[in-house]
Amino acid sequence: MKKQFLFLLLLVSSFGFAQSLNDYKTVVVPLKFEFLKSENQYRLSTLSKFNLNKVGFDVYYSNQVVPNDINRCAVLNYDIVKDSGFLTTKLYITFKDCYGKIVYQSEVGVSREKEFQIAYTDALNKAFASIYELGYQYNGGTNVTVEEKPEKKEKPERVEKREVAEKVEKVETAVQSVPAIVIDPNELLFAQPLAGGNYQLIDSKPSVIMKIYKTSDANSFLAQKGSQQGVLIKKENQWFFEYYQNDKLVSEKINVKF
Q: Which residues form the signal peptide (predicted)?
């Protein structure tokens, strides 16, 4: 009886966490996480922003300026935490409110991949699976505009915000400057299996054109093509690589044989 009660309590608590995410619309993603050595290492910040946008959040990097009409306590602070594991990479995601209280914590994503780039991407994708399952939908809860007069800001603070905004712009420009891989939609790419249900798409040379990582949906993969990150999605028995470029959705037809 006690075990059943504890299980019910945990279930109710988990439901409460899931529901509270719906009270928020805006999320801030750091460019550097505590367990990494450099900004956007293994492209975890970029991948996080992409997934959060797909879930339905408005996302800002930590070095970007959130609009003044958004109450700071209507913003969630995103973080990735690395858990200890022997011969595995374990990551989970937390969302904290303006007081540092955890609003929601994802399930732990576990990867047994040896290559760091693949392992971190795989583990993060698996952690995001539990967030996608929540069926997030903003309910207009706490993300209200500030009606009172904005606080006076010192000139040095304005200068600092401008400097950090310029810094993140340089980071994104550097990422975008990597030459993009152009795919002929008529060229047949072959899906070569990797560990964990993932694939790499190769051409006839053979050269690796794209790496795709499984999700909870069999018709949708997270995809990486050169410097571009997006999704490989199946529509009407045809695969498309979709990604954002200059805030615009780009969809490229991909001819894949699994």
A: 1-18
